[in-house]
Amino acid sequence: RGVPVSGRVRDAAGDPLPEVRVEIASVDRRTADATTTSDRDGAWSALVAPGDYRVGFHQASGRSWFAHGATDEGAATVFRVVAGSPVTVDDAAPRRTAVTGRVTDAATGDPVPDVCAALAPPDDLSDTADSDCTDPDGTFALDAAPGTWVVVVTDGTGGHAAAVSEEFSLMEGQ
Q1: Angle value at C-alpha 58, between 167 and 145, nearest 5 degrees
Q2: CA-wise closest residue to 130 among 122, 139, 141
Q3: What phi-psi label fits residue 51: left (phi over 0), alpha (psi between -120 and 50 degrees) or beta?
Q4: CA end-to-end span of the chain, whole Å?
Q5: Which of 73, 107, 158, 162 measures 20 to 30 Å from 47, CA to CA?
Q6: In 3D, which of 80, 54, 81, 82 has the Cα closest to residue 69?
Q7: DSSP reduced 3-state for 74
Q8: At a CB cut-off of 8 Å and minimum separation 6, what does 16 contact?
Q9: What angle do CA 19, 53, 121 make, to 5 degrees?
Q10: Is the pLDDT of residue 130 over 70?
Q11: Summary mean pLDDT of the chain
Q12: With pLDDT > 90 as the criterion, what percentage of the chain qualifies?
């Protein structure tokens, strides 16, 4: 038997988010973690042992965040769970921002069509959050959550070298 940890998860507009995987992860890694899924009303609940926990939300689309808008584990709120004291963690998905750009050939300045641009955290370029292939004019559009990102551009045909943008940060509401 454990302590109830529960809440509701909603989108940025306040509508319920069903089928979101909720992970309650212990900070000290000595107590068992719990995983559950939100129902059609965005409600979820789990039982955990007393301890300190972070709560993460994961959508099937690959979008993930921690409670209270944190986008990485180090910035995530730690919730203390004490025997006999249920914990409620209500949350809303962070608002997303469009990141747009144009890929050009470094030598000619001409637009580069049909290469792929992907959004990734700077410390793991393989962990892409969204991707789009460029239009004939070299433009792309990506959907980004708040956090620190880079854009990784690759050419599946090998006609152009891969490139990584400089790091940039997005705050909620940008």
Answers
A1: 30
A2: 141
A3: left
A4: 43
A5: 73
A6: 54
A7: helix
A8: 8, 9, 10, 38, 40, 41, 42, 43
A9: 65
A10: yes
A11: 89
A12: 61
